[in-house]
Design brief:
Blueprint lengths: L4 H4 L3 H22 L1 H10 L20 H6 L15 E4 L9 E4 L1 H18 L6 E4 L7 H13 L2 E3 L6 H10 L4 E4 L1 H13 L10 E5 L5 H11 L2 E8 L4 E7 L6 E3 L4 E6 L13 E7 L10 E7 L1 E2 L11 E2 L4 E2 L4 E3 L2 E3 L1 H8 L5 E11 L4 E9 L8 H19 L4 E5 L14 E3 L5
Parallel strand pairs: 3-4, 3-5, 5-6, 6-7, 18-21, 19-20
Antiparallel strand pairs: 1-2, 7-8, 8-9, 9-14, 10-11, 11-12, 12-15, 13-14, 16-17, 18-19
Helix pairs in contact: 2-3, 5-6, 8-9, 10-11
Bound molecules: 5'-O-[hydroxy(phenylacetyl)phosphoryl]adenosine.
Protein backbone atom coordinates (compact mmCIF):
# COMPACT_ATOMS: atom_id res chain seq x y z
CA UNK A 1 0.00 0.00 0.00
CA UNK A 2 1.37 3.39 -1.03
CA UNK A 3 0.94 6.77 0.62
CA UNK A 4 1.78 8.71 -2.56
CA UNK A 5 1.59 6.06 -5.30
CA UNK A 6 2.40 8.31 -8.25
CA UNK A 7 5.62 9.69 -6.91
CA UNK A 8 6.69 6.45 -5.22
CA UNK A 9 6.59 4.59 -8.54
CA UNK A 10 7.87 7.38 -10.79
CA UNK A 11 10.15 6.38 -13.68
CA UNK A 12 13.79 7.47 -13.42
CA UNK A 13 13.76 9.87 -16.33
CA UNK A 14 10.82 11.82 -14.89
CA UNK A 15 12.41 11.68 -11.44
CA UNK A 16 15.67 13.17 -12.72
CA UNK A 17 13.74 15.94 -14.47
CA UNK A 18 11.85 16.73 -11.29
CA UNK A 19 15.06 16.63 -9.24
CA UNK A 20 16.77 19.05 -11.58
CA UNK A 21 13.99 21.63 -11.61
CA UNK A 22 13.76 21.45 -7.81
CA UNK A 23 17.55 21.67 -7.49
CA UNK A 24 17.60 24.89 -9.51
CA UNK A 25 14.97 26.46 -7.25
CA UNK A 26 16.76 25.33 -4.14
CA UNK A 27 20.12 26.69 -5.28
CA UNK A 28 18.49 30.05 -6.06
CA UNK A 29 17.04 30.10 -2.56
CA UNK A 30 20.45 29.32 -1.05
CA UNK A 31 22.24 31.91 -3.16
CA UNK A 32 19.83 34.73 -2.42
CA UNK A 33 18.99 34.01 1.23
CA UNK A 34 21.96 32.38 2.97
CA UNK A 35 25.18 34.46 3.16
CA UNK A 36 27.39 31.40 3.61
CA UNK A 37 26.15 29.82 0.39
CA UNK A 38 26.38 33.11 -1.53
CA UNK A 39 30.02 33.34 -0.41
CA UNK A 40 30.69 29.73 -1.45
CA UNK A 41 29.20 30.30 -4.91
CA UNK A 42 31.22 33.51 -5.29
CA UNK A 43 34.46 31.78 -4.22
CA UNK A 44 33.84 29.06 -6.80
CA UNK A 45 33.07 31.72 -9.42
CA UNK A 46 29.62 30.20 -10.00
CA UNK A 47 26.01 31.29 -10.14
CA UNK A 48 23.07 28.91 -9.57
CA UNK A 49 22.37 28.83 -13.33
CA UNK A 50 25.87 27.40 -13.93
CA UNK A 51 24.64 24.11 -12.47
CA UNK A 52 23.22 22.80 -15.74
CA UNK A 53 22.57 19.17 -14.85
CA UNK A 54 22.39 17.05 -11.71
CA UNK A 55 26.01 15.94 -12.12
CA UNK A 56 27.15 19.59 -12.03
CA UNK A 57 26.41 19.60 -8.31
CA UNK A 58 29.98 18.31 -7.85
CA UNK A 59 31.20 21.78 -8.85
CA UNK A 60 29.93 23.16 -5.56
CA UNK A 61 31.82 22.75 -2.27
CA UNK A 62 30.49 20.49 0.50
CA UNK A 63 28.80 21.71 3.69
CA UNK A 64 29.84 20.27 7.07
CA UNK A 65 28.75 20.20 10.67
CA UNK A 66 31.34 22.92 11.35
CA UNK A 67 29.33 25.26 9.09
CA UNK A 68 26.32 24.77 11.39
CA UNK A 69 28.49 25.42 14.44
CA UNK A 70 30.05 28.55 12.93
CA UNK A 71 26.61 29.90 12.06
CA UNK A 72 24.91 28.95 15.33
CA UNK A 73 22.02 29.28 15.92
CA UNK A 74 20.16 30.63 12.88
CA UNK A 75 22.83 31.70 10.38
CA UNK A 76 21.88 29.02 7.81
CA UNK A 77 18.17 29.86 7.83
CA UNK A 78 16.85 30.99 4.46
CA UNK A 79 13.58 32.45 5.77
CA UNK A 80 12.50 35.09 8.23
CA UNK A 81 12.16 33.78 11.80
CA UNK A 82 8.42 34.60 11.65
CA UNK A 83 7.99 31.77 9.16
CA UNK A 84 9.58 29.18 11.43
CA UNK A 85 7.04 26.90 13.06
CA UNK A 86 9.41 24.36 14.64
CA UNK A 87 12.99 24.07 15.83
CA UNK A 88 14.99 20.87 16.21
CA UNK A 89 18.63 20.04 16.66
CA UNK A 90 21.29 17.38 16.73
CA UNK A 91 21.10 14.78 19.44
CA UNK A 92 24.67 15.30 20.68
CA UNK A 93 24.86 15.65 24.45
CA UNK A 94 27.83 18.02 24.64
CA UNK A 95 28.31 21.53 23.29
CA UNK A 96 25.83 23.53 21.30
CA UNK A 97 23.37 21.64 19.12
CA UNK A 98 23.20 22.12 15.36
CA UNK A 99 19.94 23.99 14.96
CA UNK A 100 17.41 23.46 12.19
CA UNK A 101 14.08 25.17 11.56
CA UNK A 102 10.95 24.18 9.64
CA UNK A 103 8.39 26.30 7.80
CA UNK A 104 4.82 25.09 7.37
CA UNK A 105 5.73 23.59 3.97
CA UNK A 106 8.78 21.90 5.52
CA UNK A 107 6.60 20.29 8.19
CA UNK A 108 4.12 19.13 5.53
CA UNK A 109 6.85 17.67 3.36
CA UNK A 110 8.49 16.00 6.38
CA UNK A 111 5.26 14.38 7.59
CA UNK A 112 4.54 13.20 4.01
CA UNK A 113 7.86 11.44 3.61
CA UNK A 114 7.60 9.85 7.05
CA UNK A 115 4.02 8.75 6.32
CA UNK A 116 5.35 7.19 3.12
CA UNK A 117 7.93 5.07 4.89
CA UNK A 118 5.48 4.09 7.64
CA UNK A 119 2.99 2.78 5.07
CA UNK A 120 5.73 1.13 3.05
CA UNK A 121 6.75 -0.74 6.21
CA UNK A 122 3.16 -1.86 6.84
CA UNK A 123 1.54 0.82 9.05
CA UNK A 124 -2.17 1.23 8.32
CA UNK A 125 -4.95 3.63 9.34
CA UNK A 126 -6.36 2.52 12.66
CA UNK A 127 -3.11 1.06 13.99
CA UNK A 128 -1.88 2.03 17.43
CA UNK A 129 1.69 3.31 17.48
CA UNK A 130 3.81 3.70 20.59
CA UNK A 131 6.63 6.21 20.30
CA UNK A 132 9.50 5.21 22.56
CA UNK A 133 11.98 7.71 21.12
CA UNK A 134 12.76 10.61 23.41
CA UNK A 135 10.73 13.74 22.62
CA UNK A 136 12.78 16.94 22.55
CA UNK A 137 15.13 18.59 20.10
CA UNK A 138 15.76 15.08 18.70
CA UNK A 139 13.81 14.74 15.44
CA UNK A 140 12.97 11.04 15.88
CA UNK A 141 9.92 11.29 18.12
CA UNK A 142 8.05 14.22 16.55
CA UNK A 143 9.05 13.15 13.04
CA UNK A 144 7.48 9.71 13.40
CA UNK A 145 4.61 11.20 15.41
CA UNK A 146 3.49 13.51 12.58
CA UNK A 147 4.00 10.89 9.88
CA UNK A 148 2.01 8.23 11.72
CA UNK A 149 -0.83 10.65 12.39
CA UNK A 150 -0.89 11.44 8.69
CA UNK A 151 -1.26 7.72 7.93
CA UNK A 152 -4.21 7.66 10.32
CA UNK A 153 -2.63 5.80 13.22
CA UNK A 154 -3.42 6.47 16.87
CA UNK A 155 -0.17 7.75 18.31
CA UNK A 156 0.92 7.21 21.93
CA UNK A 157 3.58 9.87 22.68
CA UNK A 158 5.20 7.92 25.50
CA UNK A 159 8.84 8.96 25.00
CA UNK A 160 11.78 6.74 25.96
CA UNK A 161 12.63 5.12 29.28
CA UNK A 162 10.53 3.70 32.12
CA UNK A 163 10.48 0.21 30.73
CA UNK A 164 7.77 -0.99 33.14
CA UNK A 165 5.42 1.65 31.82
CA UNK A 166 6.37 0.87 28.21
CA UNK A 167 5.36 -2.76 28.69
CA UNK A 168 2.19 -1.90 30.58
CA UNK A 169 0.96 0.57 27.93
CA UNK A 170 1.97 -1.80 25.14
CA UNK A 171 -0.23 -4.48 26.64
CA UNK A 172 -3.13 -2.34 27.89
CA UNK A 173 -3.44 -0.15 24.75
CA UNK A 174 -2.91 -3.06 22.34
CA UNK A 175 0.04 -1.34 20.64
CA UNK A 176 0.62 -2.66 17.08
CA UNK A 177 3.61 -0.54 16.11
CA UNK A 178 6.69 0.20 18.19
CA UNK A 179 8.95 3.14 17.38
CA UNK A 180 12.35 3.05 19.07
CA UNK A 181 16.10 2.89 18.60
CA UNK A 182 17.16 -0.68 17.76
CA UNK A 183 19.13 -0.90 21.02
CA UNK A 184 16.08 0.05 23.10
CA UNK A 185 13.83 -2.24 21.07
CA UNK A 186 16.29 -5.05 21.75
CA UNK A 187 16.07 -4.34 25.46
CA UNK A 188 12.28 -4.29 25.39
CA UNK A 189 12.43 -7.58 23.47
CA UNK A 190 14.56 -9.15 26.18
CA UNK A 191 12.15 -7.96 28.86
CA UNK A 192 9.15 -9.32 26.94
CA UNK A 193 10.84 -12.71 26.63
CA UNK A 194 12.03 -12.80 30.22
CA UNK A 195 8.51 -12.16 31.48
CA UNK A 196 6.75 -14.33 28.93
CA UNK A 197 4.60 -11.39 27.79
CA UNK A 198 4.56 -12.07 24.06
CA UNK A 199 1.15 -13.66 23.92
CA UNK A 200 -0.41 -10.69 25.68
CA UNK A 201 0.89 -8.21 23.11
CA UNK A 202 -0.50 -7.20 19.72
CA UNK A 203 2.77 -5.87 18.28
CA UNK A 204 3.15 -6.42 14.54
CA UNK A 205 5.66 -3.87 13.30
CA UNK A 206 8.72 -2.00 14.53
CA UNK A 207 9.86 1.26 12.93
CA UNK A 208 13.41 1.61 14.13
CA UNK A 209 16.30 3.94 13.43
CA UNK A 210 18.35 6.81 14.71
CA UNK A 211 21.42 4.62 15.23
CA UNK A 212 23.27 1.83 13.50
CA UNK A 213 22.19 -1.80 13.64
CA UNK A 214 22.95 -5.01 11.82
CA UNK A 215 20.80 -7.60 10.03
CA UNK A 216 21.41 -10.10 12.81
CA UNK A 217 20.42 -7.60 15.53
CA UNK A 218 17.23 -6.73 13.63
CA UNK A 219 16.33 -10.41 13.22
CA UNK A 220 16.90 -10.98 16.95
CA UNK A 221 14.56 -8.10 17.76
CA UNK A 222 11.97 -9.49 15.33
CA UNK A 223 12.07 -12.86 17.03
CA UNK A 224 11.85 -11.55 20.57
CA UNK A 225 8.90 -9.24 19.86
CA UNK A 226 7.21 -11.26 17.12
CA UNK A 227 7.30 -8.37 14.62
CA UNK A 228 8.63 -7.18 11.28
CA UNK A 229 11.39 -4.63 11.99
CA UNK A 230 12.33 -1.92 9.51
CA UNK A 231 15.35 0.35 9.53
CA UNK A 232 14.97 4.09 8.92
CA UNK A 233 17.65 6.66 8.35
CA UNK A 234 17.90 10.40 8.50
CA UNK A 235 19.57 13.20 10.38
CA UNK A 236 18.46 16.48 11.86
CA UNK A 237 20.61 18.59 9.52
CA UNK A 238 18.75 17.03 6.56
CA UNK A 239 15.23 16.92 8.08
CA UNK A 240 15.20 14.03 10.60
CA UNK A 241 13.72 10.58 9.88
CA UNK A 242 12.21 10.28 6.38
CA UNK A 243 15.34 10.52 4.24
CA UNK A 244 15.19 6.76 3.65
CA UNK A 245 13.34 3.79 5.06
CA UNK A 246 12.80 0.09 4.46
CA UNK A 247 9.57 -1.32 3.10
CA UNK A 248 8.09 -4.60 4.28
CA UNK A 249 10.53 -6.53 2.06
CA UNK A 250 13.54 -5.08 3.90
CA UNK A 251 15.77 -4.96 0.84
CA UNK A 252 17.42 -1.66 1.77
CA UNK A 253 15.99 1.76 2.48
CA UNK A 254 14.01 3.54 -0.25
CA UNK A 255 15.35 7.09 -0.51
CA UNK A 256 12.97 10.06 -0.75
CA UNK A 257 14.79 11.06 -3.92
CA UNK A 258 12.14 13.58 -4.91
CA UNK A 259 13.24 15.68 -1.92
CA UNK A 260 16.90 14.71 -1.50
CA UNK A 261 19.69 14.29 -4.02
CA UNK A 262 22.13 11.68 -2.76
CA UNK A 263 25.77 11.35 -3.77
CA UNK A 264 28.17 8.68 -2.54
CA UNK A 265 31.71 10.04 -2.31
CA UNK A 266 35.10 8.71 -1.42
CA UNK A 267 35.56 10.28 2.06
CA UNK A 268 39.26 10.95 1.42
CA UNK A 269 39.14 12.51 -2.06
CA UNK A 270 35.49 13.64 -2.09
CA UNK A 271 35.24 12.24 -5.62
CA UNK A 272 32.07 10.28 -6.54
CA UNK A 273 32.51 6.49 -6.30
CA UNK A 274 31.03 4.28 -9.05
CA UNK A 275 27.31 3.56 -8.56
CA UNK A 276 26.88 0.68 -6.10
CA UNK A 277 30.19 1.13 -4.30
CA UNK A 278 30.60 2.12 -0.66
CA UNK A 279 31.37 5.67 0.34
CA UNK A 280 30.16 8.64 2.37
CA UNK A 281 26.56 9.75 1.91
CA UNK A 282 26.45 13.42 0.84
CA UNK A 283 23.01 15.01 0.56
CA UNK A 284 21.51 18.08 -1.11
CA UNK A 285 17.96 19.05 -0.18
CA UNK A 286 15.66 19.84 -3.09
CA UNK A 287 12.57 21.32 -1.46
CA UNK A 288 13.44 22.55 2.04
CA UNK A 289 12.57 26.17 2.71
CA UNK A 290 14.00 27.08 6.11
CA UNK A 291 17.29 25.17 6.02
CA UNK A 292 18.08 24.22 2.43
CA UNK A 293 21.35 22.36 2.38
CA UNK A 294 23.93 21.85 -0.34
CA UNK A 295 26.09 18.73 -0.39
CA UNK A 296 25.98 17.98 3.33
CA UNK A 297 28.69 15.57 4.45
CA UNK A 298 26.87 13.11 6.70
CA UNK A 299 29.99 11.03 7.57
CA UNK A 300 27.73 7.97 7.23
CA UNK A 301 28.95 5.12 5.06
CA UNK A 302 26.70 3.07 2.78
CA UNK A 303 26.06 2.29 -0.87
CA UNK A 304 23.22 2.71 -3.34
CA UNK A 305 21.15 -0.30 -4.43
CA UNK A 306 19.48 0.01 -7.83
CA UNK A 307 17.96 -3.43 -8.44
CA UNK A 308 14.15 -3.46 -8.43
CA UNK A 309 12.34 -4.05 -5.14
CA UNK A 310 9.34 -6.41 -5.12
CA UNK A 311 7.23 -3.65 -3.55
CA UNK A 312 7.23 -1.72 -6.84
CA UNK A 313 8.76 1.49 -5.47
CA UNK A 314 11.22 2.84 -7.98
CA UNK A 315 13.45 5.12 -5.97
CA UNK A 316 16.98 3.90 -5.33
CA UNK A 317 17.78 2.41 -1.96
CA UNK A 318 20.51 2.74 0.64
CA UNK A 319 21.97 -0.42 2.09
CA UNK A 320 21.85 -0.63 5.89
CA UNK A 321 24.52 1.79 7.05
CA UNK A 322 27.97 0.38 7.71
CA UNK A 323 28.82 3.00 10.27
CA UNK A 324 30.15 6.52 10.36
CA UNK A 325 33.56 7.42 9.03
CA UNK A 326 34.21 9.06 12.39
CA UNK A 327 33.19 5.96 14.36
CA UNK A 328 35.59 3.77 12.51
CA UNK A 329 38.18 2.62 15.01
CA UNK A 330 41.78 2.10 14.02
CA UNK A 331 43.09 -0.61 16.30
CA UNK A 332 46.66 -1.80 15.82
CA UNK A 333 46.43 -0.19 12.40
CA UNK A 334 43.36 -2.20 11.41
CA UNK A 335 40.14 -0.38 10.43
CA UNK A 336 37.25 -1.68 12.49
CA UNK A 337 33.59 -0.68 12.34
CA UNK A 338 31.57 -1.44 15.50
CA UNK A 339 28.89 -2.89 13.19
CA UNK A 340 31.30 -5.67 12.12
CA UNK A 341 31.68 -6.72 15.75
CA UNK A 342 27.92 -6.55 16.32
CA UNK A 343 27.49 -8.75 13.25
CA UNK A 344 29.65 -11.44 14.85
CA UNK A 345 28.14 -11.21 18.34
CA UNK A 346 24.54 -11.42 17.19
CA UNK A 347 25.11 -14.75 15.45
CA UNK A 348 25.25 -16.40 18.90
CA UNK A 349 21.92 -17.43 20.42
CA UNK A 350 23.22 -17.43 23.98
CA UNK A 351 24.60 -13.91 23.71
CA UNK A 352 22.28 -10.96 24.53
CA UNK A 353 21.85 -7.76 22.53
CA UNK A 354 23.82 -5.41 24.77
CA UNK A 355 27.55 -5.01 24.30
CA UNK A 356 30.35 -2.48 24.66
CA UNK A 357 33.73 -2.07 23.01
CA UNK A 358 36.55 -0.80 25.21
CA UNK A 359 39.75 0.31 23.50
CA UNK A 360 42.88 0.99 25.54
CA UNK A 361 46.57 1.47 24.89
CA UNK A 362 49.18 0.22 27.30
CA UNK A 363 51.89 2.58 26.05
CA UNK A 364 52.92 0.72 22.93
CA UNK A 365 49.97 -1.34 21.75
CA UNK A 366 46.22 -0.92 21.30
CA UNK A 367 43.92 -3.42 22.96
CA UNK A 368 40.29 -4.12 22.14
CA UNK A 369 38.02 -5.66 24.72
CA UNK A 370 34.55 -6.78 23.67
CA UNK A 371 32.21 -6.94 26.66
CA UNK A 372 28.93 -8.64 25.95
CA UNK A 373 25.97 -9.66 28.06
CA UNK A 374 24.82 -13.26 28.11
CA UNK A 375 21.25 -14.01 27.07
CA UNK A 376 20.48 -15.55 30.48
CA UNK A 377 22.33 -16.51 33.65
CA UNK A 378 22.21 -20.30 33.14
CA UNK A 379 25.50 -20.32 31.24
CA UNK A 380 27.30 -18.69 34.17
CA UNK A 381 27.08 -21.98 36.04
CA UNK A 382 29.29 -23.83 33.61
CA UNK A 383 32.88 -22.65 33.37
CA UNK A 384 33.51 -25.01 30.49
CA UNK A 385 30.63 -23.63 28.44
CA UNK A 386 31.74 -20.06 29.10
CA UNK A 387 35.29 -20.85 27.99
CA UNK A 388 34.00 -22.52 24.85
CA UNK A 389 31.76 -19.57 23.96
CA UNK A 390 34.51 -17.00 24.66
CA UNK A 391 36.95 -18.97 22.50
CA UNK A 392 34.49 -19.26 19.65
CA UNK A 393 33.67 -15.53 19.65
CA UNK A 394 37.39 -14.65 19.76
CA UNK A 395 38.08 -16.90 16.82
CA UNK A 396 35.22 -15.51 14.73
CA UNK A 397 36.26 -11.91 15.53
CA UNK A 398 39.81 -12.74 14.48
CA UNK A 399 38.67 -14.05 11.14
CA UNK A 400 36.26 -11.16 10.44
CA UNK A 401 38.42 -8.29 11.74
CA UNK A 402 41.90 -9.72 11.25
CA UNK A 403 42.60 -8.73 14.81
CA UNK A 404 42.61 -10.43 18.19
CA UNK A 405 40.33 -9.06 20.87
CA UNK A 406 39.73 -9.89 24.50
CA UNK A 407 36.18 -11.17 24.97
CA UNK A 408 34.45 -10.75 28.32
CA UNK A 409 31.05 -12.30 28.91
CA UNK A 410 29.02 -10.57 31.61
CA UNK A 411 25.70 -11.25 33.33
CA UNK A 412 22.51 -9.96 31.69
CA UNK A 413 21.68 -6.39 32.72
CA UNK A 414 25.26 -5.48 33.73
CA UNK A 415 26.19 -3.04 30.98
CA UNK A 416 24.76 0.47 30.84
CA UNK A 417 21.58 0.81 28.82
CA UNK A 418 19.28 3.71 27.94
CA UNK A 419 16.27 4.48 25.79
CA UNK A 420 18.19 6.78 23.44
CA UNK A 421 21.08 6.04 21.12
CA UNK A 422 23.39 3.36 22.51
CA UNK A 423 27.00 4.26 23.34
CA UNK A 424 28.85 1.21 22.12
CA UNK A 425 32.44 2.43 22.11
CA UNK A 426 34.61 3.51 25.02
CA UNK A 427 37.89 4.65 23.54
CA UNK A 428 40.28 5.27 26.42
CA UNK A 429 43.41 5.77 24.32
CA UNK A 430 45.59 8.87 24.63
CA UNK A 431 43.73 10.17 27.60
CA UNK A 432 46.79 10.56 29.88
O1 LIG B 1 18.84 10.18 14.30
C1 LIG B 1 17.16 11.05 12.80
C2 LIG B 1 16.40 9.80 12.89
C3 LIG B 1 15.60 9.57 13.97
C4 LIG B 1 16.42 8.86 11.88
C5 LIG B 1 14.87 8.41 14.05
C6 LIG B 1 15.66 7.72 11.93
C7 LIG B 1 14.87 7.49 13.02
P1 LIG B 1 20.31 12.78 14.37
O2 LIG B 1 20.01 12.72 15.83
O3 LIG B 1 20.70 14.08 13.80
O4 LIG B 1 19.06 12.33 13.54
O5 LIG B 1 21.44 11.72 14.10
C8 LIG B 1 21.82 11.41 12.78
O6 LIG B 1 22.34 9.14 13.41
O7 LIG B 1 24.11 10.71 10.76
C9 LIG B 1 23.65 8.46 11.58
O8 LIG B 1 25.00 8.45 11.97
C10 LIG B 1 22.78 7.98 12.72
N1 LIG B 1 21.62 7.25 12.21
C11 LIG B 1 20.35 7.68 12.12
N2 LIG B 1 19.56 6.69 11.61
C12 LIG B 1 20.37 5.63 11.36
C13 LIG B 1 20.17 4.32 10.83
C14 LIG B 1 18.42 11.11 13.64
N3 LIG B 1 18.98 3.86 10.46
C15 LIG B 1 22.84 10.32 12.76
N4 LIG B 1 21.27 3.53 10.69
C16 LIG B 1 23.16 9.87 11.37
C17 LIG B 1 22.49 3.96 11.06
C18 LIG B 1 21.68 6.00 11.74
N5 LIG B 1 22.73 5.16 11.58
Amino acid sequence: MFFQPEIETIDRASLRKLQYSRLQQSLERCYHNVPLYRQRFDEAGLKPEDIRCLEDITKLPVTTKADFRDNYPFGLFAVDRKEVLRYHGSSGTTGKPTVVGYTRNDLDMWSDIVARLCMAAGARPGDTAQISFNYGLFTGALGLHMGLEKVGCGVIPLSGGNTEKQLMIMRDFGTNILIATPSYAAYLGEMVQERGLRDQLKLRLGLFGGEGSTDTMMRKIEQSLGIIATDNYGMSELIGPGVSGECEFRTGQHIAEDHFLIEILDPETLEPVPLGEYGEIVVTSLTKECCPIIRYRTRDISRILTDPCPCGRTMYRLERLRGRSDDMLIIKGVNVFPSQIEGVLMTYDNVGTNYQLVVTNNGYMDNLEVQVELQDTSLLESFQMLEKLTGSIKEKLRSVLGLSAKVTLVSPGTLERGAGKAKRVLDLRNKG
